[in-house]
Amino acid sequence: MRKLLRLFTVIGCYLALSTSVLAAQTLSVAILTTGERQTDVYRQAFSDFEEQFNRYNVQLAFYNDKDFKRLLPSWLESGEHDILYWQAGERLQTLIEQDVIQPIDTLLPKIELQSAIQPAVFKSVSNQTGTYALPFSQYGWGFYYNKAMFKALNVSVPTSWDEFVALCLNIKSQGANPLVQATQEGWPVLAWLDFLSLDTGGEAYRDQLVSGQAVRNQDSKTLLAQFDQLLGDGLFFAPEKLWSWQQALQAVERSQATMTLTGQFVESSIDPLHEENIGFFPFPKKNGTSKGEVAPLEVWIVPRSARNKNKLTDLLRYLLTNNTTHATNLDALPVTNEDFLPRLPNERVKRSAAALTQSSNLIQFFDRDAAPSLSQNLAKSLASSIHSDSIGPLTDGLFQGRMSDFEVNLGSDIAVLPQLYFASLTGLKETFFASNLMQDIYRQLGYQISVTRYTTLEASLNSYRFGIDGELVRVDAYKKLAPSLTKIPEPLANVAFYLVCKDLEMCSSSLPKGSEVLVTNVLLVVKTWAEENHLRTKRYESIEALFRTFNRSSKGLMVLGASEIIDNSVLLTDSTYRTIISVPLYHYVHNKHKELVPLIDNALKKYKATERYQALKQRYWLQHY
């Protein structure tokens, strides 16, 4: 009898232990992460859940973007994971239509979800048949800007599109670079299409755009005209460089550019040394009634095939209740109705959150709603328009539906040379000779160069306050105006300037004092020549405007550079011209790069002995000097 009792005791202990083990319910969660910091935040959140609800054991699996999206279809069929990370918009809608995800409001009461989640966010994950995802974070988009540059340039945050365009032109006129745009990855540049489409035709037009149905309509014409206001004046900094979003942010931090359009995900990448100097403002609207904002939304979904979907209520409620903490730890915005503004980390995030909470219409990012082929082509078209400073490529892609061959995505295995940035004045074709020449010289030395062109001498000189590395090409007298620059001793070439006359006699003799001479630039040598000869100069913004005035006058006078003579020879058949100035042109580098001076000087001397140099001179009509 005692043996029998002892046996029952052992069996009872075994059953009690088994019950305890079974009570620890295992749940599986698969998450897409982009970095170690995100992974740590997720681990901590689910660890806190296990501590609070010790009857659960949560197994986490982390994947990069490519692997997660590759494996998602099989997980939805197999039920291997109980909860999956996913993204709202068309990507969520597709899963709803495929009927592969469990409505969340079958696991948590709909009234509980609706009362806890912001209305616009709740709308993003619901339809007439149910609520299909649990939102957990969103992040806004807008302009991150350099506060110190705004102060130095005496400008303020714009509140409308017209103010924004005027701001960009003002910044450029003072010698700074208004905008830098990430184009390397392709997708960041699409934010322009999201905002401009909402501003142009609201959500209806934006829906047409992402579905590929907006070709050749009036709203597309309006969008193109609006973006075109930012093109043609060199407002985008170093557009030929394929900036990653991290590099674009660094350009703003370093005062190389004033603003960049980007998402709140950059918060964790802001250098702590620049934290207080980086501000944020929402995308300025042209249409005052437009209330739409871009706010990509992250969600949790439950596969219909999940093995433990009926045991997820505690975890889902925990994630909803602790949303503010989890979202802010991910450098994102919460999605709940609670007053979380005081808990946000800085003014940038608070301004972004305020814009989103005031918006009646939150949309997902363009590439989350559009077919991959469409979003990729329009990203290339946008990047190409920025690169060429022309609306043409975007018009071809958006209005004509033409496929772009512009390459925007650099592979990680491609070596990127360090880049230097040079200022130059507009209005003289010889600067293009210099940019071709110096591109070759710097490439030999292991650098790439970018040229930012300014319309005034003052703006060019002022650019050195904002990190410009030197002056592309100037005459020798320039060193008196720019003591922070060092001249490369070897000249790039000699350049000739010509006095063009309607009257042959005027060109063959001294000009009467006070004569008016038409010019298209404010070059020092031309200014000095005019002063020495007691002449007045009148500047025109373009060669076309100059010729119109010159041709209307019977005794017109103007000064042109060598390449301008050859470019416009057809227009000069009834005129005569003579050389008035012949000067050497020099390249200048900032004193911070003094160690490059002998290297550049030596490379330039060797290069001038090559056929490539002679071909460049001939191309720009400098072969006689």
Automatic annotation (TrEMBL):
Q: So which residues are the signal peptide here? A: 1-23
Pfam families on file? SBP_bac_1
**Keywords for this entry?**
Signal
Q: Which family does it belong to?
A: Belongs to the bacterial solute-binding protein 1 family.
Give the source's domain of life in one word.
Bacteria
InterPro entries the UniProt entry points to: Bact_solute-bd_prot1, SBP
| Stated name of the protein | Extracellular solute-binding protein
| Localization in the cell | Periplasm
